[in-house]
Amino acid sequence: MRTTLVLATAIMLFSLPALAAADGTLLPLHGVAARAGYAYQWQPDHAYVVLSRPGIVVVLRPGESVYQVNNQTAVADESPSYSRGDLYVTPALASRLAALAGRSPSMVRTASRATVVAQSDISAHGAISLEVQPFQGAEAIYAGGSAPPNAPVTITLLATVSTDVPTIVVSRQDVITDVNGRFGALIPIASAYERGTILKIVATSLPGVVPASAQLVINAPNPGVKVPLEQTTPHPAR
Prior knowledge:
Elements: H1 2-14, E1 19-21, E2 24-28, H2 29-36, E3 39-43, E4 48-53, E5 56-60, E6 66-69, E7 72-75, E8 81-83, E9 86-89, H3 91-103, H4 110-120, E10 126-127, E11 129-134, E12 140-146, E13 152-160, E14 168-176, E15 182-188, E16 198-204, E17 209-210, E18 212-217
Helix pairs in contact: 1-3, 2-3
């Protein structure tokens, strides 16, 4: 029964009108959402799509591989692209969205419906501003900025170590903005210690809040500092 359901989902996904891509085939998100039972809502003001089912809200943005699943973040194998008035996604991301939908109940008891809907409808308005910098003396960064007051912000660290290795999710840090909308966090970069690694920092919040991102290259925790123990001293001539 489970195998039959998986095969049926795959057949439905790949029967959608596709968009040719340089490295494969992309599927229209509107059709993917309809077949998985999501409500589809395009937000043109902020250029993102909200997919919702009982107990689950997914937010995807064109050109961003990081997407939101409720209050968590996930990374797609390829960023959704915009074309023909819709987002187009890879078959892998389409299958992931179908799998998430499978975990969400299609029907819930009346007593719990109000709670589920209330959780899914939580949103805010505004945008995140983000500033990041290496933290002197530690294998860590400081990430701070602003967002709507008293809103949750998830800071996701993504590491690019090689052209031949997929982007790595290093960590996720959840913070809450204060009454003035400010937030800040000292975040270890373990295990992205390799010098020259590209570290991308993405800050996301509730649906309706425009995310922000920044990027830096990993260097030594004490750049420019001369440590006597590291200095090479010539041996005296005999």
